[in-house]
Amino acid sequence: MGMTMTQKILAAHAGLESVEAGQLIEAKLDVVMANDITGPMALPIIRQMSDKVFDRDKVVFVPDHFTPNKDIKSAENSKAIRKYAKEQGLTWYFEQGKSGVEHAILPEAGVVTAGECIIGADSHTCTYGALGAFSTGMGTTDVATGMATGKIWFKVPGAIKFVLTGKPGKYVSGKDIIIHIIGKIGVDGALYKSMEFTGDGIANLSMDDRFTMANMAIEAGAKNGIFPVDDQALSYIKEHSKKPYTIYEADEDAVYDEVITIDLSEVRPTVAFPHLPGNAKTIDEIEAMEPVKIDQVVIGSCTNGRMEDMRKAAAILKGHTVHSDVRVMVVPATQKIYKECIKEGLLDIFVDAGCAVNTPSCGPCMGGHMGVMAAGEKCVSTTNRNFVGRMGHVDSLIYLASPEVAAASAIAGYIANPEKISDADFENTEKAGAVR
Amino acid sequence: MRAKGHVFKYGDNVDTDVIIPARYLNSFDAEELASHAMADIDPDFVKKVQSGDMIVANKNFGCGSSREHAPLCLKTAGVSCIIAETFARIFYRNAINIGLPIIECPEAVKGIDAGDEVEVDFDSGAIYNRTKGTQFQGQPFPEFMQKLIAAGGLVNYTNSKKK
Known about the structure:
The complex is a heterodimer.
Chain A: H1 5-14, E1 24-28, E2 31-35, H2 39-49, E3 59-62, H3 72-88, E4 92-93, H4 102-108, E5 117-120, E6 134-137, H5 140-149, E7 151-155, E8 159-165, H6 174-185, E9 194-198, H7 207-215, E10 224-226, H8 231-240, E11 258-263, E12 270-272, E13 280-282, H9 283-287, E14 296-300, H10 301-304, H11 307-317, E15 327-331, H12 335-343, H13 346-353, E16 356-357, E17 378-381, E18 397-400, H14 403-412, H15 429-435
Parallel strand pairs in A: 2-3, 2-5, 3-4, 5-6, 8-9, 8-11, 9-10, 14-15, 14-17, 15-16, 17-18
Antiparallel strand pairs in A: 1-7, 12-13
Chain B: E1 2-10, H1 16-19, H2 30-34, H3 45-48, E2 54-57, H4 69-77, E3 81-84, H5 89-98, E4 102-104, H6 106-110, E5 117-121, E6 126-129, E7 134-137, H7 143-151, H8 154-162
Parallel strand pairs in B: 1-2, 2-3, 3-4
Antiparallel strand pairs in B: 1-5, 5-6, 6-7
């Protein structure tokens, strides 16, 4: 029986000829990662099993959630993993100032590559599937065990195959496509399964689009999201990583639970309304509604804080000012992206438009710090979750969108269509309302 | 092993952000986390919960973040078992790893209301609604997971294999 791409990677790491869905296996790990929330909690658990991590090149810590430290407890947590990383002589410890959001920095720094088996104590670890790796989020105990032993158990997942065809429109990116897909299958539509993306439409998706899509596989309940390794992926991998890589392809006769075809040319800019990432509405549906007035916009995160996201947001914001009722935070996901924003003049555009530009951090995405919301406030955010209370007060509301929709909304003061940015005066809500 | 307690009932997609909001994640002290359990979905939960009580919920319980703080705060608050139609996969692993029993059983979820007294026999997977006098059969754990649970979680299991 044929195997999916995910199953092939798992079989290889379990030392087995073949595996099938539902099978329980133990697999070797290439990278095991934790952050400043899950890492400190892992340390006493690792020590129960071993004085040393299994491999100092394969155990990774990225303090990014509450950093720069938001309070004394967070500072103590960061201190604990910093000390441990030094003690163990870890190759990959990412300190503030040379770091970024974990799921942006690991691919950028070449820590992860194609064909690897990766776990991380963060649910969005599935991001690295964009590189053709098997990569999934786990809890602290699993990751601590992985760090101590280099192995962990898996239940081999079945898969849904997504055949992507066509080319997305000008203002449609990976974010719109993945929200569209989650809207279609539901927030548990891929529960316990892989989401395997295939089809000639993938050639029309940038690596940043793919990172965004793989990142949000967890929002459909999936174990992982994975893309084939094409020329574009290969050139990314070669540019960023010196590690050996392996390219796996799904068998011709691989068994899928379901096959879903998505014509990318038909996907519209799409926004997930509160309180589920699957509560998808197209920009056309939104334009037919009463305008959703907003208080805050966040452009950043492991989902949409990459270079292309910055460029897209800047292209919309250029020459405009942020609406007087809206606060905007732009958070480049890594120091390298931050610097590139300076070089390309994007920081000028953001600051001139009236955006606050934060240092790389997960901060606002999970209501951690730097952008926490008050009761009744509404935020258009390029992040990944719009759960109750996710970004602050339990009565605040989150609308998940692409960087372009977020930027257009920042100017308009309500959830706005980036397609209209050139022919509408978004500076003024009343006027913009009339144009709509 | 058996557990018995009164039921707190919730709907679909109870996410880990409402079970333990990120604003409390600067600590991993179990007691401190337990004092905020279910803060953003049921602020009265910590006032009402008694040791042995159970949570019954619809589908995809524990979706979202990988924070192990979520099952840990529930277990420490006194929750003896969670019964749901389905669990999100990371929560499922985390619960087993820290020794919080969870059972998937859609029929039981339909047949149990908030406040009902429920007893669960973990060896057989039998679920008894003592208030209504009804019984349901939950999915037993696969053999490997039974070994994990019997060893007292993943850490003990891993250490026992080394010897």
